[in-house]
Every structure is written in C-alpha cells, then in structure tokens.
Amino acid sequence: MGKPVKQRKKWRIRWLDESGQRKSEVYEKRDDAKFALSRHEAHVEEKKRGLRELAPPKKTFDELCDYWLKNKAPQKRNQKDDESVIRAHLRPHFGGKLLSEIKGSDIDTFKISKRHLSNKTISNQLTLLITMLNLSVDEGWIKKYPKIKKPKVSIFNKDFNYLKTNTEIQRFLAAAHAESKLAFTLYATAIYSGMREGERGHRVCGKIRRWKGLARMDMLSKSRRKHLRQTSQCCFILWGQLHLLGWECLLC
Question: Does residue 40 contact residue 15 with C-beta atoms inside 8 Å?
C-alpha cells in the first residue's frame, strides 16, 4: 500500500488502476489523502477479483461511426445510405461526444433539428442510430443508452385507388387477358400472391416448388424468402398459365 507524499503545502497520492495505468490526486490534508488512497486501492482490488464491473472504455460517437463504416456498413445492401446518413446527420450532431454522455436531451435536440424533414426520413435516421448504439452495447462500450422514440410513419399517407371486390378483380383481369396472356398472368399473380413487382417480373420464372398448398420461390430476396400461401386461382395461374405461355419452370 502506498502512502501520501508531501508536495509543497499539499499531499499527493499515486496508485495503479485495474488496467495498470498510473493515477494521481492532490489533497489539502494528509488524512484525506490517506483515506482516498485506501479507497482507490480497494476499488481496484474489487475489480481485479471480479467483485465490481469494469468501467466501459471511453469511446466517442466518432469512433463508433468509424467502426460502423469499416466493419458493418459494407455488409449491407444500403451501404451508401448509411454513409450518407452518418456523414450528413448523425456525425455532425453527436460528433466527438462520448457514447456514455449521450442523453435523452441530445436525442430530442437531434429530432428538433430535423423538423424540416419528413417523419419517414427522421425515422430512418433514428433506426440507424439505434442499431449503432446497440452495437456499442454489444461491444461493451456502454451499458445502456436513452430510450429513443421514433416518429409515427403512416403507411398510406393518401387515399390510393385499389380493387375492393371480387367483381372489380374479375373485370380487371378480364381486361388484362384481353390485352395479352402475359399481362393477365403477371397481374393475376400479383393480386392472389401479394408478390412485389420485381418478384413477379424477374423471379416468377425461378424454381417453383409445390408443397402442401404452398408455392415457394427459391430465388426471392432474403427478406422475402418465405412461403407464400396460394389460392386455387393462383395455383392455376402459376402452373397452368405459365405452361400455356411455354415458360420453363421446374415443378416438383
């Protein structure tokens, strides 16, 4: 155990923290210095024995951004979107602030500064921020972060026209059939399966498996790689109409 050292009219103490780095403090009275030294040494010993959690490293938001852009963003399809959001919005606002010092008030200030943007845009920026802060928790850089509430985003922000009844659907498909068999096939598949435009036009000719009333498109994107329940009409379209058109499909 060390001892306080006289330094002019004050007392200095020195000790090594749990990572081996030298620390020092100065006190007016020797008793205060002696008490502080014993407290620091006990604190270090508790951490070494695992009785007290180690303090997370002091990481800034800039360091988190650098890590994300180097190790995480390249793994995503929307890498350029992440780079743009970080460069234009997140880094300028949070910048060199320590991750452990990001408070709820900082989040509120950020949202207020983006009021000129749409709720959807703000929500996307906050989603990336939450994902990045979750990473910092996983890496042990912070223990937790303030709750972040994203603005509500309306899925349908205006009244779209859509087919509401079976009669309207039949009229629409009849018009599509009169146009061409291909138009009928694509529109009918869209109505009865809910597949997106790219999945209908580009991937519907991929490998199709029929299993217990389900049609699985093996070439769908990862987020859409799921079983699409088909009605009897859709099964007729997928296997009957495609056969009539002479498209090559592997049915099993």
Answer: yes
Cα separation, 216 vs 252, in Å, equals: 11
What are the tokens at 179?
Answer: 């146009």
pLDDT at position 40 is 86
Strand, helix or coil for residue 77: coil
Contact (CB, 8 A) for 245 and 182: yes
Beta pairing partners, 7: 10
d(CA 4, CA 26) in angstroms, rounded, equals: 9
231-246 pLDDT, tens digit each: 444 555 555 555 554 4
**Chain-centroid distance, C-alpha 248:** 39
Query: 188: which residues sit within 8 A by CB, 6+ positions away?
Result: 173, 176, 233, 234, 237, 241
> Are the beta carbons of 32 and 24 closer than 8 angstroms?
no
Which helix (H) or strand (E) is 149 found in, with range?
none
Angle subtended at Cα 222 by Cα 216 and Cα 227, rounded to the nearest 5 degrees: 25
Whether 201 contacts 242, CB under 8 Å: no
CA distance 196 to 207: 17
Q: pLDDT of 25-42, one tens digit each?
A: 999 999 998 898 888 888
